[in-house]
Amino acid sequence: MGGAVGIASPALGDRIADVDRLLAAEGGARRLALRRRPPAGLRFVAQYLDDDEDRRALVEAYARRWNLPLLPLRCGPLGALVTRPGETGLPLLSLFVGPRQPADLCAAMAAASADPARRAAAETLIARLRRHRLGLANHVPPPPAETAPARPVVLVVDEPAPAAAMAAMLATARAEHPDAEIRILPLPGLDGQPRPGPLSRLAAAEGLRVERLDRPSAWILAGARRVFVHAHMLGLEALIQGVPVTCFGFPPYAGWGLTDDRDALPAGAPPPADLPALVAALAAFCRCASPYDGAPADLDLLARHGIAVLARDRETAGETVMTGLKLWKRANLRPFLDSRAGRLGFAATPEAGLRLLRRRGGGRLAVWAAREEPGTAALAAAAGIPLLRVEDGFLRSAGLGSNHVTAASLVLDRRGIYYDPERPSDLEHLLETHDFDPDTLAEAERLIRVLVARGLTKYNVGQGGSGIVRAPAGRLRLLVPGQVEDDASIRRGAPDMGGNLGLLQAARAACPEAWIVYKPHPDVEAGNRKGLIPRDTARRLADQVIDDASVAALFPEVDAIHTMTSLVGFEGLLRGLAVTTYGLPFYAGWGLTEDRRSCPRRHRRLSLPALVAGSLLLYPRYVDPVSSLPCDVWTVVERLSGAGTAAAKLGGGQAARGLHLIGALARSLLGR
């Protein structure tokens, strides 16, 4: 579509690159000087409704003079979240574009009402925004606890509307709620800072409190008995938060029976609607940009990003000290353990870490689980300091950790760690006790389908292909994945197995007629870790030894998997393969595998979606590997889906390993 949108608003002009991205469907955005003639090809003049009256009048006059249509722009429903202390210059992530006339909104409402999928998406969005209190201004973390006010609070939104109309709205609020505390809510600017309007200037003389915007806007609105608004989109945010709204103007969300409308409705007002239908209709006018790369997005992605940031805030509030971590790994840990609600420090030893926490007044001690020093748990317990064990998640990266490729997923476990069956872990507790709701199970089923269709695994290394397994017709095709023999999961979960050689021998003894395919672990093949079986020895026990193909390419060509504790067994379950375990991995003992060992703590019988929901949706934490921003599993899935080719081109040799190490060291030294 040709042309562009002229931007004369100072607020939007300061964010012209963001506005240009958001208005891509309208032809992009260009700065507009009101004293000059419009540039050739201009299609619209933007009327930013958060601007003051004088600016809006100038823009209207300019559009009339040059016979250009006005395009209404309103602040979007979801603003960017600060993710680190002191962060400034947040991107503009959403704008409402239009509707230009009431008929446009009526048509959108009719279309949304007739589309069950859009309605369901709106219901999910409303539930997420209300549960997590996400809205327009998210520039500060939520308060750790909300103190109930002495009296009910009624908010009056301070907008750039005629002063007399705003004063009348304030008088009405006071008259109708004599028992309440009337507070003035200034508009949050695009930077989250308050923009005082006519009521803020009256507040001191009237003895009224002006909200300081020291909490997210949704938190402020959710605590109100009622919100009085002229026409600002904060009224829609209040509706989403379940708060009654009185309108003195005619915003897009008024006139549908959801608000107390004091202005005369236009003739032929539409029939009443419910909130999901309204949100679905207004979403058609909302333009969103991904917080991860600025690409076109939707409100669902913005909400999921906000939820991930809030989850990290909760988990990292206060002080965290990580001990015994190599310098190059620090940059990888920061996005998971550093946040706007807490502070991350590092210490060489557990003792030093505990001393630092005592000086800082407490917090939590974090250790890399596989390198936890003996006695660390006892030291932390004696000091009254919680211990947090950190380990790679199950969708880690496009490349090996031993090649210094940073992780997109980590687990933070307060009870134990998932690969150690000697003690409970947060994952085991979750799988044993969690009530998996239908929506979560449905999401897990969708995740299974996507992972299988895209061939995603933990490391996503190796080549694809078909016809790799050369088994004669009728033979059971058995995949035996090798592991790193000094890995903690082997030491804890299969200590007397005899390593990879013992596993191969056990698999051959269990299935003497099977066509056994042995797949060495990629870390071992790369020469980074222990566990190599001499090739001639492996070939005496296995019919094929395959090291250059990805494990994802092998799954369609085998019938079953025999493993000690490898994640390959879990990945095989996703693909409907029969799995036998000789150790006690996290996915064993739930009725989905044939197990040669048992865990007396695991009593529950799980469905595969429940196992996946616990293991991939609820237990790990995810970070976008490009932007280092908190995210959920779906963002990582998209990144890994597009990363395989690049990783294959870079390779896993010493040159690639060195490049990854240099990058990780640089980020660690720069504190990023």
Automatic annotation (TrEMBL):
Top-level lineage group: Bacteria
InterPro entries xref list: Capsule_polysaccharide_synth (IPR007833)
Any single Pfam family the record assigns to this protein: Capsule_synth
GO biological process: polysaccharide biosynthetic process; polysaccharide transport
Protein name: Capsular biosynthesis protein
